[in-house]
Write a structure and sequence with these properties.
There is one protein chain. The chain folds into two domains: 5-225, Alpha-Beta Complex (Spore Coat Polysaccharide Biosynthesis Protein SpsA, Chain A); 233-353, no CATH class. 50% of the residues lie in helices and 16% in strands. It contains 15 helices and ten strands. It is globular, with a radius of gyration of 21 Å.
Length: 359
């Protein structure tokens, strides 16, 4: 019989946390689930602990893979193996809330068939020992159904997280299969690349506001350890390249709202300008590394950048031109960096003026 939920767990070097993770699943009063656990080659006893649980409960299935530094491979394999109606993604160092599967089931059963059911996440910081925030991408009083593009536009226009974590959402499995939605292998910060595509392609999005996921920030996690200056440049080069290509393809569709293109353009170009040309990053990240990763970003040329830059201000269009100069013209790289020094100084001045006028 088809389970209601398929829970896909990615694990690597999570021995101190994985028992709590699996206990949070197996102790749920709601029992109509399967749990697919991907264990990448670990330096600790993660694999042994996971197999211990699988030996006791047939709803757990374990698959293994080489160490990749990313959750992508485990999530993709788990999606391929899943048979449930809905998929939940869980990391091996996190947990789900007590009784949450029953609450999710009841809310989904009351409004079935949506492609995405965004929920909420409680964030716990292991470094400070505090519960930091409750993340919900939609206000609590928003209970109406949205199309995917409308949901994407809502989050962008309301200054909410434009790339909510995969773990924030319950996905209809058939939607993921039909759209062939997968994470890019080896990519960190997968949410930034995966979620904009999933949101746009969804036909129905129903916010549930259920705080079911308990997210742990720990000092040696991929997201923290990789956040050192310049540590994510290659990842963001791949992310932005993928998203610019995605937009270029869908920009030909007459139903694409130009306001969504404008919001995407501002978000993704701000990433580009900030990570590669913010004065602090230019001081601390070697030019050679910034150039190498930009060459990865634009390995297929600048056509997709031109498409999306048509939806932004003149200042951002000029900034895009200077990015191109930096990549293609070695003699003028200093001039491009000088431009961005002025660009960011002017941007901070404008933000300061807006703050003063609002106070």
């Amino acid at each position: 019989m088809t389970p209601f939920f398929s829970i896909v767990i990615a694990c690597c070097d999570v021995e101190p946390y994985v028992r709590a993770c699996l206990d949070s699943v197996v102790n749920q009063p709601f029992t109509d689930w399967e749990c697919l656990i991907g264990v990448e080659t670990s330096k600790d006893k993660t694999a042994e602990i996971v197999r211990e649980y699988a030996a006791k409960d047939s709803r757990f299935q374990v698959f293994t893979g080489p160490r990749s530094g990313s959750c992508s491979a485990s999530r993709n394999t788990g999606m391929d193996m899943a048979t449930g109606e809905y998929i939940i993604f869980l990391d091996g160092d996190d947990t789900i809330a007590e009784g949450c599967l029953q609450r999710l089931h009841d809310k989904i059963a009351a409004r079935p068939g949506a492609d995405l059911y965004p929920c909420a996440i409680q964030v716990h910081n292991d470094i400070t020992g505090k519960d930091e925030e409750l993340r919900d991408n939609y206000p609590a009083d928003l209970n109406r159904e949205l199309s995917g593009p409308d949901a994407a536009l809502f989050t962008l226009q309301n200054l909410r997280n434009p790339c909510p974590m995969l773990q924030l959402t319950v996905f209809r499995r058939q939607f993921l299969v039909t759209e062939n939605l997968k994470c890019i292998h080896g990519l960190r910060r997968q949410d930034s690349e995966f979620t904009p595509r999933a949101l746009y392609l969804a036909k129905r999005v129903i916010p549930l506001h259920e705080p079911f996921y308990l997210y742990r920030i720990q000092g040696n996690s991929v997201s923290v350890s990789g956040a050192k200056t310049g540590g994510f440049l290659k990842d963001f080069a791949i992310i932005i390249r993928s998203l610019l290509s995605f937009h270029a393809i869908h920009s030909k569709e007459p139903e694409l709202n130009p306001r969504l293109s404008s919001c995407w353009a501002r978000q993704w170009l701000d990433w580009l300008f900030y990570f590669w040309f913010d004065p602090r990053n230019m001081r601390t990240v070697p030019r050679s590394h910034r150039l190498q990763t930009l060459e990865t970003l634009f390995e297929n040329g600048f056509g997709n950048l031109k498409v999306i830059s048509s939806f932004v201000s003149k200042a951002k269009k000029i900034a895009c031109w200077w990015v191109r100069v930096f990549v293609l013209h070695p003699r003028f790289r200093w001039a491009a960096e000088l431009f961005f020094t002025v660009y960011f100084s002017a941007s901070k001045f404008k933000c300061s003026k807006r703050a003063d006028s609002a106070s």
